[in-house]
Design brief:
The chain is mainly alpha-helical and about 120 residues long. It has 6 helices and 2 strands; from the N terminus they run αααββααα. This is Cytochrome c domain-containing protein.
Length: about 120
């Protein structure tokens, strides 16, 4: 299994998966958050919210992740298609949207392991 030890590795890992599966005009190009994983600083990624996206029920911004707790991290729930926002019937559904570039269980777990390790910089 892939082990990701630093934020730069997370960025490159997600970018490669997206690039390997790109469909012209498909998300994230047309999504409100764009390719936030590639453009945000470490601090903004680990402590900030998903750019341009709010909870449709509460109107609150959505934290990207919760250090040390991948199961409560929106990025993991989004990639797995779990939880009230990203699960079946949720307002957003599984990410990436549009049924393209689904991450494998192993790929999502590699990101989850990095989060559970406290998001080493």
């Amino acid at each position: 299994m892939t082990k990701l030890n630093h934020f730069s590795e997370i960025q490159a890992f997600i970018e490669k998966i997206m690039a390997d599966n790109i469909i012209p005009g498909a998300p994230p190009l047309n999504s409100p958050h764009k390719a936030f994983w590639a453009t945000l600083s470490y601090d903004a990624f680990c402590n900030g919210t998903v750019p341009g996206v709010k909870d449709p029920v509460t109107g609150n911004s959505l934290p990207i992740l919760k250090k040390g707790d991948s199961k409560s991290s929106n990025i993991i729930m989004a990639l797995r298609g779990e939880g009230p926002l990203f699960g079946p019937g949720g307002p957003f559904g599984q990410m990436p949207a549009g049924g393209v570039t689904k991450f494998t269980i192993e790929q999502v777990q590699a990101i989850a392991d990095w989060i559970d390790a406290g998001c080493p910089q």
